[in-house]
Every structure is written in structure tokens, then in C-alpha cells.
Design goal:
Blueprint (H helix, E strand, L loop, with lengths): L1 H4 L6 H7 L11 H22 L5 H11 L2 H10 L10 H5 L6 H19 L1 H18 L9 H11 L6 E8 L6 E8 L2 E9 L2 H18 L2
Antiparallel strand pairs: 1-2, 2-3
Helix pairs in contact: 2-7, 3-4, 3-7, 3-8, 5-7, 7-8, 9-10
Length: about 220
């Protein structure tokens, strides 16, 4: 593991904990995940701030969202070969939990938290920026398209309308394959627009896209 990560843990127990899913043992990686999530967001924000001095707040925010999300983090976790090394419960093992984006992304966040506790902020920063190096090289905040939720909010604000309200109206499927049904309530659109996605964020974005499309058709 350490050869893949290019990092040797002084405290191997932190490494073990970072790789432990809640389905396996009472002592699991969720607290480390909480810490790592905050660290990744902060360090990538700092990297983007210095790398793109001409980018405005909105461009930097969209760039960070493109880099720090479940899909992106899961991709890095696969590059580090974390999946086969995860400690999962029997149920998660049978359903292929070690391949699932959400579990891989959470494990990567936990790994960041573990490295921070093991070696401190400087070493943790070096490791994270190595993992994100190619993605930081490829991204260009100036040409990134705005996501549907942002576009819908800007459309409503420009017309002095209330902001949209997103509500979860249904949750279906087993825990590892949940489907979210989100309603987007917008002034002038009745009934509320609904969309389904594999995550709350995905469903909200699709609901916003549908609402914006409906509003533009009515112009």
C-alpha cells in the first residue's frame, strides 16, 4: 500500500482505520473521512487560487466542484489501488462495494485525514497535490460551463424571482444503489419539476435543468 501511495505511515493503525468501512467493524473510517473531506476542499481551493490568478470566484468554485466530487475522488482511489485493500463487511464484499464510487471516494478522504494526523499539514498537502496533479494541469476555469443549478439561480435572480427550493420526495432502492427523486419548486412552474438520480446532487442538477428548460420555453 505505501509503495502505491508513496507514503510510509508512522502509525500503521491509522492506515488500517482509513481502509475500514463501517460495514466491517465498529471502529471505521467515517471520522477520518470527515477530516479528509475538509482538507481536500481547502487544499484544492488554495491550489486553484494560486494557479489561476485571473479566475473569478464563480470560475474557481466550478473548478473545485469538478475536481472534488465523488466521481473524481473515486478515480484517484482506483489509481492508488485502494479498492482491493478496503476492509468491508460480508454484504458489501458480495455486492462489489470495493468498486463503488461512494465507498472509494470516502476511503480516499479518510486516507487524507489519516496522513494529516500521521505526518502533519505539509506532508498531507504534498501527497494530495501529487494525486491531483494531472487533473490540475488539465482544468481551465475560464472555459468551464456553469452547472444547471447555477444557471437556474442566475436566471431567477436576474428577474428578481425567489430562489428554487429542492426537496427529496422519494428514496428507493437498496443502500448501495439508492435512487433519489427530487422536486424543484420554482415560481411560475406548477406543479414542481421532478427528476431522479443516483445521488441527491445528480437529481437536483437534473431537476434544475428541466425547470430552466421549461422557463425558457415559456418566454
Amino acid at each position: 500500500m505505501s509503495a502505491v501511495l508513496r507514503y510510509q505511515f508512522q502509525n500503521p493503525e491509522l492506515l488500517k482505520l482509513a481502509l475500514t468501512h463501517r460495514s466491517a467493524f465498529p471502529q471505521h473510517n467515517e471520522r477520518l473521512e470527515f477530516l479528509g473531506d475538509a482538507l481536500i476542499g481547502s487544499l484544492i481551493a488554495e491550489a486553484l487560487y494560486h494557479r489561476f490568478p485571473a479566475a473569478d470566484e464563480g470560475q474557481l468554485t466550478r473548478a473545485r466542484a469538478a475536481l472534488v466530487n465523488k466521481t473524481s475522488l473515486a478515480t484517484i482511489a482506483r489509481e492508488l489501488d485502494l479498492g482491493p485493500r478496503l476492509r468491508l463487511g460480508e454484504g458489501e464484499m458480495k455486492t462489489g462495494g470495493w468498486r463503488r464510487d461512494s465507498i472509494l471516494a470516502n476511503a480516499l478522504e479518510a486516507m487524507v485525514g489519516a496522513i494529516f494526523l500521521d505526518a502533519g499539514a505539509t506532508t498531507c498537502k504534498v501527497e494530495i497535490l501529487q494525486w491531483f496533479d494531472s487533473k490540475l494541469e488539465e482544468i481551465n476555469p475560464a472555459v468551464m460551463a456553469k452547472d444547471p443549478k447555477t444557471l437556474l439561480q442566475e436566471y431567477l435572480q436576474s428577474r428578481q424571482f425567489p430562489l428554487p427550493i429542492y426537496q427529496t420526495v422519494a428514496l428507493s432502492g437498496p443502500p448501495h444503489e439508492q435512487r433519489f427523486t427530487i422536486a424543484c419548486e420554482v415560481t411560475g412552474l406548477e406543479p414542481a419539476v421532478q427528476a431522479v438520480g443516483s445521488s441527491r446532487r445528480q437529481a437536483e442538477q437534473e431537476a434544475a435543468r428541466l425547470a430552466l428548460t421549461a422557463l425558457l420555453v415559456r418566454q
